[in-house]
Structure formats: structure tokens, C-alpha cells
Amino acid sequence: MSAEILLSVSGLHKAFGGLIAVNQMQFDVHKGEILGLLGPNGSGKTTVMNLISGALPPNEGKVVLAGRDITSLPAHTISHAGIARTFQLVRILPDLDCIENIEAGLAFRPGPLWGDAAKLAARALLDRIGLADHAHTPAGDLTYIDQKRLELGRALALQPKLLLLDEWLAGLNPSELQEGIALVRKLKSEGLTIIMVEHVMDAIRSLCDRCVVMNTGTKIADGTPETVLADPEVIRAYLGDAHA
Ligand SMILES: Nc1ncnc2c1ncn2[C@@H]1O[C@H](COP(=O)(O)OP(=O)(O)OP(=O)(O)O)[C@@H](O)[C@H]1O
Ligand SMILES: [Mg+2]
């Protein structure tokens, strides 16, 4: 029996002037799975995340979350519907401490929390993401991986059903990478559904249940990590990019 579909993307199309960034993209994400969204630089991965999260409206196509058509809804409405994201370039509030950063997220969720309730929830979240010891550290003073943890915490504060991670593991050193992988695995074990844009092959192999591969805006493969990474068209897309 196949798992319930949480997100369904169909016929998704986005052009920037004459450039087609996303071309007839179609894929489903099942409840509880980690879907890897792969592809060479500029293939349209972040644009797909932007179309799903409402940062950009598509020219054509549909995004359906748990049976509800969320296509072209404003980003805050989509966030309330249950989709949270992190950004390719970390976005935190550097002058605020970690508790305050998480509180800013808690204030934006459906059933927002303030005051003591927010502080309590923020501490629980910091514990969940491994930042319990940094409650009062200004976000700008955190190491890179801890800044990434904090950004993840802000996304989790929205209590998403679906989490979008855009190269969340990029730029980590080997030991940080193992910590990052363990944290994503823990979120999956807690029942979260995740779409992960990622280039780090170790992370893809160890985390993704399934991968969709894009090249120049178009889906070229959809399957298990082993299958898609061995697909000649996928290999050509990556090597071609490296030699471009
Ligand atoms: N706001 C925008 N305006 C114009 N062109 C854009 C815009 N956003 C993305 N593009 C272009 O669309 C294409 C896809 O970009 P996108 O950022 O989605 O790729 P990506 O797969 O995330 O790449 P990377 O791996 O480098 O992050 C690129 O050619 C990019 O230059
Ligand atoms: Mg990108």
C-alpha cells in the first residue's frame, strides 16, 4: 500500500522573461518521506521551492497540499497551511538571541504564542535542534552550523507538515555534516515530511527515500537515490554542467 500523498505538484511552469526556469514539473511527496530535489546549478530547484512556498507565483500549474489547492496563495497563507522553509543563504536575525529568534517564528504560526508560553516553547525547540546551551547567544555570534540549526528552528516553530530545506547541509565540514544528517533524520522520525534540495551525495544517499532530478527546468529522473544517481541522463546532466 502506498503512503498518503501530502503534496502534489503538476504542470508547474515558471519563466523569467525568455528563460524557462521550471518547465512542466510534476511530482508527488508522500507523507513522512524525504524527497531529494537534485540537479546541476541553475536547473530550477530553488525556483520550485519558491513556487511551492508562495515566494513566487507560477505561470501555469498546480500545487496541492493535503487535498487543498494552494497555488499562488500568498506566502503567509501557505505557511499557515503547513509549509515552512529554510533559505539557500541563511536568514536569521543576527542581533537577537536564539530564544528571540525562535519567538519571532512562534508569533507567526497559526495559534501564535507570546510571553511565557512562547519562551517555554522556544526553549523546547532549542533543545530539539541542539541549541539548548545557546538560549541567550546572539544569533550573529553562532557558528555556521548553529546558525543553520537556528534557521531550522524558526521553520519548525511554524509547526509545518512539510519542511522545505534548500541546501541546508551545504558548507558544513565533515563532522558538522554528520550532525546535520542526524538532525534531519530525527525530524523524519518525528513524522515530518521533507523536500530537500541538496548537492551533498552522502546526505542524499543516507537521507532521501526518493529523488526527483531536474535539468534546465525539466524533470529528468524520479526514483530511489541509487536508481537516479546511476541514471546515464543524470550523470550526463551533472558532468555536462561541470564541463560547461
Ligand atoms: N528572480 C529571478 N529572476 C530571473 N531569473 C531567475 C530568478 N530566479 C532564478 N532565476 C534563473 O532561473 C534559473 C533557475 O534558478 P534556480 O535558482 O531555481 O536554480 P537552482 O537549481 O536552485 O541552482 P543552484 O544549484 O545554483 O542553487 C537560473 O537560470 C536562474 O538564473
Ligand atoms: Mg538553488
Automatic annotation (TrEMBL):
Gene Ontology annotations for the cellular component aspect, listed alphabetically: plasma membrane
Transmembrane segments: none
Native source species: Thalassospira alkalitolerans
Keyword Lipid metabolism: no
Record key words, sorted: ATP-binding, Nucleotide-binding, Transport
Source taxonomy: Bacteria, Pseudomonadati, Pseudomonadota, Alphaproteobacteria, Rhodospirillales
PANTHER family the record matches: CONSERVED COMPONENT OF ABC TRANSPORTER FOR NATURAL AMINO ACIDS, CONSERVED COMPONENT OF ABC TRANSPORTER FOR NATURAL AMINO ACIDS-RELATED
Superkingdom as given in the UniProt entry: Bacteria
Keyword Membrane recorded: no
ABC transporter domain mapped to chain residues: 7-241
InterPro entries: AAA+_ATPase, ABC_AA/LPS_Transport, ABC_transporter-like_ATP-bd, BCA_ABC_TP_C, P-loop_NTPase
One Pfam family recorded for the sequence: ABC_tran
Entry GO MF terms: ATP binding; ATP hydrolysis activity
Identification of the protein by name: ABC transporter
